[in-house]
Amino acid sequence: MPIYDNDAMFKALYNSLVFNMTMNVNLSPQLDEMVRQKVASGLYASASEVVREALHMMEQQDCIRAAKLEQLRHDIRDGIDSGDSTLWDPEEIKQEGRKIRAARTNASKTT
C-alpha cells in the first residue's frame, strides 16, 4: 500500500523527485544521434525530454508485457483446472467440420 492514499499524488511526488535529479548517461553514437535528431526536429525541447519520453514508453511496454504474462498464467491455470485432457482425432474433427459445411451449403441452396 502506498504511503499516500492518492496514487496520482504519489506518482507526481515520485516523478518530481526522480526527474529533477541530475544524471549523466553514456549513449552509443547511434542513440546519441537519435536524441539529437529528435531535439532538432522540434518535437522535444531538450535531450532530457527525449529520454523522459523514452523511459515513459519503456514503462508502458513493461506494463503491457506484465499484463500479457499475467493473462498467460491465468490461461494456463484455467487449462490445468479444466480437468484431464482427452485424446482427439484430427480426421474425426475434419469430418465433423465437413458435415457442418455441407449442411450450410445445402441450406443456402434451398433458400
N-to-C CA distance = 64 Å
Shape: elongated
Total E-strand runs: 0
Radius of gyration, CA atoms, in whole angstroms: 27 Å
Mean pLDDT, as a whole number? 88
Report strand %. Answer: under 5%
Q: What is the H/E order?
A: HHHH
Largest sheet: none
Summarize the amount of helix as a percent range: over 70%
- The low-confidence parts are none
Class computed from helices, strands and strand pairing? mainly alpha
Note the total helix count: 4
Task: Give structural notes.
It is a single chain. The chain contains four helices and no strands. The mean pLDDT is 88. The termini are far apart. The protein has 111 residues and is mainly alpha-helical. The longest helix is centred in the middle third of the chain and has 35 residues, at 47-81. The protein has helices at 7-19, 29-40, 47-81, 90-110. It is elongated and about 75 Å long. Helices cover 73% and strands 0% of the residues.
Describe this structure in a few short sentences.
The chain is 73% helix and 0% strand. The chain is built from four helices and no strands.
Features of the shown structure:
single chain, 111 residues, mainly alpha, 4 helices, 73% helix, 0% strand, elongated
Present the secondary structure layout.
Layout: H1 7-19, H2 29-40, H3 47-81, H4 90-110
